[in-house]
Amino acid sequence: MRLGLVLLAAFAIAACSKPSEGAPPGKVERFPDGFPKPDRPVAGIVAPEWSSGPDRDAADESGQLIRGLDIKAGMHVADVGAGSGYHTLRLSPAVGPTGVVYAEDIVESYISGLKREAERRGLKNVRMVIGKGDDPQLPAGAIDRAVLVHMYHEVESPYALLWHLATSLKPGARVGVIDLDRATQNHGIPPSLLKCEFEAVGYRQVSARLMEGGVGYLAVFEAPKERPRPADIKPCRAAR
Questions:
Q1: Alpha carbon distance 96, 2 (integer Å)
Q2: Does residue 238 lie within any of the structural domains?
Q3: Rounded mean pLDDT of 72-92?
Q4: Which of 155, 178, 156 is nearest to 90 (CA)?
Q5: What is the rounded distance in angstroms from the CA atom of residue 4 to the CA atom of residue 10?
Q6: Which residues pair with 90 in a beta bridge?
Q7: Strand pairing partners for 228?
Q8: Lowest-confidence region among 2-6, 73-77, 150-154, 162-166
Q9: Does residue 240 sit within a domain?
Q10: Number of Cα atoms under 13 Å in the Cβ half of residue 146
Q11: How far apart are alpha carbons 197 and 234 in whole angstroms?
Q12: Is residue 156 part of a domain?
C-alpha cells in the first residue's frame, strides 16, 4: 500500500508539472517532410511484445484500457504498434461482430504472425495494416479509439505519426497511451513530456492516471480539432 501511494504521488507530480514547451535553443532539427525531430532519445524496437502475458493478465491491463477509453461494442479501434497482438486479441471481443479492430505495425513479420493467430481463433473483425514509421496508414475518418501501448517511445518521428493518425480519427475520437514513467531511452516516457508532444500536434489531454498492477500509466487524449502545419510544430524539450 505504501509503495502504491508513493508511486501515485510521484505520478501526480510528473503529470501536473508544467510541460517543456517550444523549440530548444538554436536551430530545430527537422525531417525532410518538415516535421521536427524529437528533442529526446528514441528507443529501439526490441521485441513484438512489451512483456509476457501472465503479469499483464494478472493486472487486467486490457480491461483497464478498455474501461479507461470507454470502448464499446460496434466501435472501430486501432491498435497502433500492435506487435504480437496482445491487445488486438482482447479488443476483438470487446468491440464485437459489429465493430472492427485495426491491428497496425511497421514490422511485416509481426503482422503476419498476428494474422495467423487471429485466423486460428476465428476472429472475423480484425483487419491487418502494415503502416509506416511516420504514418499508421489507417482508413481516413474511421477510428473511434486508438491505442498505443508501450511503443510510443520507439517512434522515430512522433510528431508526424500523431499528425497522420489524426486524419484517421473521427471527431471526438480518443487516443489512449500506456507507457512507463521513465526516460525514453529506457523504454518509457515521462507523462508531462507525452502530454506536451501530443498537444504540440493539437490533441487535448482528457485524463492521466496510474494503472493498477505496475503496468504503467494510461494517458487519454482527444483528437485534434485542427492540426498545425508540420513546419509550425515546435518540439518539446525533455528534462536534462
A1: 39
A2: no
A3: 97
A4: 178
A5: 10
A6: none
A7: none
A8: 2-6
A9: no
A10: 31
A11: 9
A12: yes
CA angle 199, 159, 44 (to 5 degrees): 120
Give the three-state DSSP class for 220: strand
Please give the pLDDT value at position 238: 81
Q: Is the pTM of this model over 0.85?
A: yes
Residues 6+ apart with CB under 8 A from 98: 73, 74
The predicted pLDDT at position 54 comes to 67
Q: Give yes or no for a contact between 81 and 149, defined as CB atoms under 8 angstroms apart.
A: yes
138 phi and psi, to 5 degrees? -90, 160
Q: What is the CATH number of the domain that holds 202?
A: 3.40.50.150
Region 101-116: mean pLDDT is 97
Q: Give 110's Cβ-side CA count (13 Å radius).
A: 22
Range of the domain at 130: 2-232
- Nearest residue to 138 (alpha-carbon basis) of 185, 181, 103: 103
Whether the Cβ atoms of residue 78 and residue 168 lie closer than 8 Å to each other: yes
Residue 239 CB-half CA count within 13 A: 14
Q: What angle do CA 55, 52, 174 make, to 5 degrees?
A: 80
Distance between CA 64 and CA 6 in Å, rounded? 21
Instruction: Assess contact for 174 and 206: CB atoms under 8 A.
Output: yes
Amino acid found at 183? A
Mean pLDDT of the chain: 89
Cell of residue 160, nine digits: 508526424
Give the count of domains, the chain: 1
The CA distance from 223 to 162, in Å, is 10
